[in-house]
Amino acid sequence: MFDYHVHSQNSVDCNFPIQRQCxxxxxxxxxxxxxxxxxxxxxxxxxxxxxxxxxxxxxxDEAREEFAGRLTLLRGVEVDFNYRTAPLVEKFIEEYGxxxxxxxxxxxxxxxxxxxxxxxxxxRSLDEVIVPYLDNVKMAVETGWFSTIGHIDLPKRYTPKTxxxxxxxxxxxHLQPIFASMIANNIGFEINxxxxxxxxxxxxxxPAVVRWYSEAGGKMITTGTDSHAPQTIGAGLxxxxxxxxxxxxxxxxxxxxRQATLVPIETLRAAN
Length: 272
Ligand SMILES: [Zn+2]
Ligand SMILES: [Zn+2]
Hints:
Elements: E1 2-6, H1 18-27, E2 32-39, H2 53-66, E3 72-80, H3 86-96, E4 102-106, H4 126-143, E5 148-149, H5 155-158, H6 172-185, E6 188-192, H7 194-197, H8 207-215, E7 221-224, H9 237-246, E8 251-256, E9 259-264, H10 265-270
Parallel strand pairs: 1-2, 2-3, 3-4, 4-5, 5-6, 6-7
Antiparallel strand pairs: 8-9
The structure holds zinc ion (ZN) (2 copies).
């Protein structure tokens, strides 16, 4: 199984060294692990300026040597993206893009540089949150900078009870052009299993979205737990493989130097 979304102490919201995450991955039956720390772009974010690519590369390469033969360890990063910060992201990709195996593009911020947390919904309807969010996702896809898109329906995780529950069907007309652009740009999205263990109790995205993408001809899916602690590494991945197959997806993407290979799900099961 591939866990392509795991944080380490190179993220401001995680205290665990890469080495600990590698040990946990091996114990959980993960065969390929991408450590994808936050590269923040918004100055208001507590993690702004925290991530140091040089420090990360050194620690990652040390762990890669230590766990050689037991775990395939990839140089990854979760890059925060939105229309306001796009020029900063471009600069980062130009400078460091070639150093990575795998780059997640994630939208975390909405209008005016406000983070999409429950408070963000207070003065906005669900549509006023989701539609601009998906516009930013579409823009992220069109840049061609990313290997995958992170948690494509993240706002559902933070929707307060004052709002109606997120139903992807209501946004299908916004998702379809994103899928078309993904297929054209050879980019997909991740199944972020953190949703299974947190509020939405469903992965981000859930099966309906996967099925629409698959019906549109999409095949590029990555899997990740978005773990900030060792105990959740690998969590929900086996279940996700079942879900993908039920939705018409038979492969999961593996990356080296930002080049994708599609690995049959049956092969992944056989490895465990
Ligand atoms: Zn994220
Ligand atoms: Zn993350």
